[in-house]
Amino acid sequence: MVSKIDSALQFNRTVLNLRSARQELIASNIANVDTPNYKAKDIDFAKTLQGAMSGNTVKLQMAGTVPHHLSSGTGENVMGAPVMFRNVVQPSADGNTVDMDVERAQFADNALRYEASVKFVDNQIKNVFTALQG
Amino acid sequence: MSLFNIFNISGSAMAAQSQRLNVVASNLANVDSTTSANGQPYRSKQVMFSTTPMGDGGGAGVKVSGVVESTAPMKMLYDPKHPMADEKGYVTMPNVNVVEEMVNMISSSRSYQNNVEVMNTSKSLLLKTLSIGQ
After folding, report:
1. What is the distance between the alpha carbons of residues B59 and B6, in angstroms, rounded to a whole number?
2. Residues of chain A with pLDDT > 70: what percent?
3. B83 part of contact set with chain A, CB < 8 Å
4. What gap in Å lies between CA B56 and CA B43, rounded to an integer?
5. Taking CA atoms, which of B21, B32, B36, B70 is between 20 and 30 Å from B4?
6. With 0-12 CB in 10 A as exposed, 13-18 as middle and 19+ as buried, what is A66?
7. Cβ pair B105, B3 in contact under 8 A
8. Inter-chain contact A122–B133, Cβ cutoff 8 Å?
9. How far apart are CA A56 and CA A77, in angstroms?
């Protein structure tokens, strides 16, 4: 019974972990908006979730543009998925690739989806309570 | 827990931006200071930001790597009656560019506000996570 509750909650637990990791990455981008030569980072959420659900913790090889940024393997992985650089739309003179509009939109989007997952977990637990108490 | 690390990331950015604002205030206050602590006219100061790793999830904060004095040429003002005037009647005035400083001020205050928003969002996400199952 308990292991079934655990496996029922596992998907949303993984989603929440991944969402909070992505939230941290986007917060880093927003924090470094004025740092010269900082490159905006993000993960491919769908691929990372698929990898995490299938238990794929193999460190994938990153494809990048700046070798010394990418050489550190463990620091630049989120749950086994590679952290990638955002494509530059409007490059700035100081080499910074953070686009505040994109980052704020992604931050709000990610926060909303995190809240949705919290609600899903909440409802699942409430369902279990309903089943227990009648 | 990634969401807690966002407090560190945004906090470091807020500290860095407020130091930048501090330097702007110092530059604007000393726009007419013909003598500074070392006896020379005041030189405009600028902060340098650099990225610093924070947490183990690929998050990156900001730190002020140093405060440098501007190497821009000093402004020369013709005022023979001024006590600091040289033999030709010119006074060396600080190389503070008021327009640049005002732009810096707006930029840093907006970045600061952005990081406050990020922190508030993370806080509300954490509070909602705490209320799961209640």
Report:
1. 8
2. 81
3. no
4. 40
5. B21
6. exposed
7. no
8. yes
9. 13
| Closest-approach residue (CA) in chain B for A29 | B60
Q: Note whether B104 and A34 are within 8 A (CB).
A: no
- Which residue is closest to B6 within chain A, CA to CA? A24
Dist. CA A121–CA A45, nearest whole Å = 19
B 14-73: CB under 8 A from A: 16-17, 20, 49-51, 53-62
Q: Taking CA atoms, what residue in A is nearest to B134?
A: A122
CB < 8 Å to B59, chain A = 24-25, 27-28
- Residue-level pLDDT at A5: 80
Chain B: give the shortest CA distance to residue A45, in Å: 15
ipTM of the complex: 0.85
Give the mean pLDDT of A2-31. Answer: 89
How many Å apart are CA A40 and CA A98, to the nearest integer?
A: 5
**Which one of A25, A76, A107 has the shortest CB-CB distance to B121?**
A107
What pLDDT is recorded for position A133? 92
Nearest alpha carbon to residue A21 among B57, B53, B55: B57
What's the per-residue H, E or C state across chain A? CHHHHHHHHHHHHHHHHHHHHHHHHHHHHHHCCCCCCCCCEECCHHHHHHHHHCCCCCCCCCCCCCHHHHCCCHHHEECCEECEECCCCCCCCCCCCCCHHHHHHHHHHHHHHHHHHHHHHHHHHHHHHHHHHC
Q: How many residues does chain A have?
A: 134
Q: Are A80 and B57 in contact (CB under 8 A)?
A: no
Tokens of A114: 């995190």
Q: Are A48 and A18 in contact (CB under 8 A)?
A: yes
Contacts for B120 with CB less than 8 Å, ≥ 6 apart: none
